[in-house]
Amino acid sequence: KRTPPKKPYKGFPLTVHPNGSWCKRINGDLHYFGRWSNPFAARDLYLFQKDDIIAGRTPRLPGDNRPTIRNLLNSFLDHKKQSLDEGSIVQRTFDDYKGTCERLGKAVTLSAPIGSLRPIDFQSLRIRLAETRGPVALTNEINRVRIIFNHAHQAGLIDHPMHFGPGFRRPPLKSVRAARRSRGRRDFSAVEVLAMLGKARPVLRAMILLGLNAGLGNTDVGELPLSALDLGAGWCEFPRPKTGSKRRAALWDETVEAVREYLAVRPSPKTSQIAGLVFLTSRGNKWSKSSRAAHLSREFGALMDSCAVPRNGRNYLGLRRTFRTVGDATLDVAALDCVMGHAPDDMPSRYRQRVADSRLRSVSDHVREWLLPAGTPLPRPAASSAPQPRTGPRRRGKETA
What we know:
The chain is mainly alpha-helical and 401 residues long. It has 15 helices and 6 strands.
């Protein structure tokens, strides 16, 4: 009869078992990790296998070099970073993929082999995602997770496509449509737009008019180059960053004037890489969600609050929705698609090489008439509402536009 050894140090995670092994009770079952004679090897094996055992998977053996979830996420993000550098995707798309990878890394064991995930694991992941997301956001997140694991097969990290199981389904379209209807209308009325223009500072005033006049979104105005604007002739020609689709819009006189007023007080660019952009923050940075620069949604939301315009889920992109909603009354779908950068994959769109400028200007004039009927002048901010220069210290990490 042998004398059981003592633990080699205080806090040693394993316990002596009479059969001569070091053991640990996990999920109600005893698991053995090595003989009494080598406690440190038993501890290392326990640390190597415990995540698999806790998750209910067959634990890996030392020397198992199968690609892990960590390898997959790193490979996927490297691939998407290359696509970002090539211009195939925009920064916002990359940020969405990166956020999904971070959440996925917290929900599963990073050291687990890719092929060890079972349909029950994806079902548990979906339940966890559904706790904090509505049908629309849940659909987008599930799509991104599927894209990540499809990359594993395409990149040769696993030999067969991933089996997600029936529990990792997307929400039904009926639920998605109901969720979108519950938000209510997400466009703006003419009264609300005029109220915001009456208080907006030069940078936001120009952005609002470009959003309503040319159907630009957040990324569009953040990436808009000076070369895209022909202020003399009154045109904006800027391919859509998200898809690369051609886009051309006739500018109102009020829009041209607002852009020129902003360019007269535009800050100096902080770096030469952004010198060609139209809009810069007060510190000469880029209007981008992924940088330290001011975020347009935050600035626009503050303007809505100051004008008592209810948010109701609306943001700057509501101006783009407003342009399309009002412009649809012209019944010129081709001209509207050209302004917004939509590229429907149908036969007429393939054969149509251009849309006449007269049609584009007609759509633009219709939206202007909706905003400023019968020669109504565009409201201008009062002199007292102009922003005052900051004299106190600025807190680090905060920036105003």
